[in-house]
Amino acid sequence: MATTTHTLHTCKVEQTRATINKLHMLFHFTAILSLLYYRISYLFHHAHEIPIFSWCLVTTSELMFTSIWIITQAFRWWPVTRTIHPENLCGNTELPGIDVFICTADPKKEPTVEVMNTVLSAVVLDYPLEKLAMYLSDDDGWPLTLYGLKEACLFGRSWIPFCRKYGIKTPSPERYFSSFGDDDRVLRNHEFMAEEEDIKVD
């Protein structure tokens, strides 16, 4: 029995934009050729009147800018728009298990708070918790890292459900409670504010 595959996105060429871009490229390229023709012909007809060094410098610069311009036209030649289809994503039962490895060594160079923020951010990933495994590697075996991990686990009991419930887009606690998290607080209700205050107390 044949299986039907569903794409996660579709690609559509913007014909109008592509035509306008190509006309602009043609006009621009014609102007560049005219300029180069002028430079070369002027050299042959007035070689005794112009300083060769200045002419070479200007012409070389124009050739360099022309080369850069040609290279940057590649993505304008065939502009496309992509439409995503999240409904075609496989269900949770088909998702594979993933392992997240976080490595640290010296708390003086890698502050424990930042490492724990990374741990909590990874746990809040939009992925089934039963298929997510987290590994923290502390090469030097610092007691401070172990203590920080214990505290992060206690904090995570309230932080993780809070992030999943309200779809927090800034999963790092340190960044969330700074100005970077202001967007997540826009148009929130009193229940959200109360839970946020409880987390701050934790």
TrEMBL record:
GO BP annotations, alphabetical order: cell wall organization; cellulose biosynthetic process
Superkingdom of origin organism: Eukaryota
Any single GO CC term annotated in Swiss-Prot or TrEMBL for this entry: membrane
UniProt-recorded Gene Ontology molecular function terms: cellulose synthase (UDP-forming) activity
Annotated UDP-alpha-D-glucose binding sites: 109-110, 139
Keyword set, alphabetical order: Cell wall biogenesis/degradation, Glycosyltransferase, Membrane, Transferase, Transmembrane, Transmembrane helix
Pfam family, one: Cellulose_synt
InterPro entries found in the cross-reference section: Cellulose_synth
Membrane-traversing stretches: 23-40, 52-72
Location(s) in or outside the cell: Endomembrane system
Chief localisation class: membrane
Protein name: Cellulose synthase
Organism: Camellia sinensis
